[in-house]
Amino acid sequence: MGQPAAEFSGKTAEDKEIRLSDYKGKVVVVNFWATWCSPCRAEMPGFIKLEKKYRDKDVVFIGLAVNDELPKIAKYTTEHQIVWPNILATPEVIESYGGVKAIPTTFIVSRKGTIAAVVEGMAEEGPLEVEITGQL
């Protein structure tokens, strides 16, 4: 914890370019996930609730999809009303985040751009909210 979060960038299925540095000064929840991953799908309802609750408090969610395809991501996020940006996780980004040994894995990036917390495996809504509010 405390090390700078690695920069990443990519295009969403809607062809919007995003990068981590676009959200400097905000708390960023970076979620490595996949449409084919059942624990990833199971954690999404909690993420949706938290994103709605904290979006006006400078908290941003970004999905980094692992071994997936943008059309599948777009279909899934539309069907489940996931409004935050999702891009493909490149091997370089996965490596820069320590190799991401489990899917899902969620990183909380502080307003200062450092990694404040890591949740390997399914992130439960309550504990994730504690990590987010600890950065506000």
How would you explain this protein's 3D organization?
The structure is a single chain. By secondary structure, this protein is of the alpha/beta class. 31% of the residues lie in helices and 25% in strands. The chain contains four helices and seven strands; from the N terminus they run βββαβαβαββα. The chain has a five-stranded mixed β-sheet with strand order 5-4-3-6-7. Strands 1-2 form a two-stranded antiparallel sheet.
Q: Unreliable stretches, pLDDT < 50, 5 or more residues? A: none
Strand content: 25-35%
For the report, how would you describe the main beta sheet? Answer: 5 strands, mixed
Order of helices and strands: EEEHEHEHEEH
- What's the arrangement of strands in the largest beta sheet? 5-4-3-6-7
Overall pLDDT level:
95
- The chain-level structural class is alpha/beta
Number of helices: 4
Radius of gyration using CA atoms only: 13 Å
Shape: globular
Q: What is the helix content?
A: 25-40%
* Intertermini distance: 17 Å
Compute the number of strand runs: 7
Task: Write a brief caption for the model.
With 136 residues, this protein is an alpha/beta fold.
